[in-house]
Amino acid sequence: MENKVKRFLIDGAKGVTLGISAAVPGLSAGTIAVVEKCYDKIINAVTSLRKEFKKSFFILLPFVLGLLLGGVAALIGIQRGYKAAPFTFTGLFAGLIIGSLPVVLEELHKGNSAKEKIKHIIGFLVCLIVAGGLGVTTALTETNFNDAVLNREIWTFFLVFVAGFVAAGACVVPGISGSMCMMVMGLYYPMLNTFTGSESILHTGDTLFKITGLLYALILIIGALAGVVVCSKFMKFMLAKHRNTTFYAIFGLILGSLVSMFINVDIFPKYNGGIALWDYIVGGSLLVVGAIAIFLFIKYSKKKQEENSKESVEELDIKKEADDINPAS
What we know:
Blueprint: H1 2-23, H2 29-35, H3 39-47, H4 53-84, H5 86-99, H6 101-105, H7 114-141, H8 145-150, H9 154-170, H10 178-184, H11 188-195, H12 207-241, H13 243-262, H14 277-325
Helix pairs in contact: 1-2, 1-4, 2-14, 3-4, 4-5, 5-13, 5-14, 7-13, 9-10, 9-12, 10-13, 12-13
């Protein structure tokens, strides 16, 4: 019993770190899971839910509870912190993204023909323009999704579905954060404000406002589930058939998202005297520190993966040798 409680608490603590990483743009919950050696455990439990529901449910329970706790805590902190120091948080998020670039860069290879090179360039440029253009467009047109969400405009419900689809789908793409995708689309902070802070459904007596807020959550979850199913199959096909072109497109998407993080409707108006000097200094410093920290973290996680793979191969070799020595009668 004591070991079960201990294991539950350890897995719950791991779930907290997964929740925090899922909430922070630029961090990948998948990478954290690999480092904490719980990725396979979670995936196996999820895939076995239909066949072994009770066993899988109790395996996933501490992770889910921890994920919710960590995610909510991180989102509340980000929501309050961004209002006080917008450039500090933007710089930190950008640093985390820059530090993760080597994951994609090591997958980029020159094409063997002019046709392949053209595909790489087109994929890169299209994704760069789309990802960068989203933020720049919202800044120049002063498109404020936060006001639209607060006013519960009909089209925002469809947009929330798309955001959930893209964000969850991004989780299966190496080097891309789901939260980062929502930020690029301009819906990260509007969704954050819907459930945390003074403008959230928790601080209103308007029943309709609360119901529509919960409807946003439901639509976001449905979009996320659809995104995981569809994008996992799509990415599996693309990585199998067009791996190099896919990673050039991913590289363009990441670089474009960096542009959108610094030029969007939320932060762009603040550059005109709305950001203090200390905010710029701290943000710039955290950009560098965040980039170095996540680079070293990814390097460490790759080393752990290689060690785990090596241990698995050695275990298989030992088992094979044992079977050869003691063949089944």
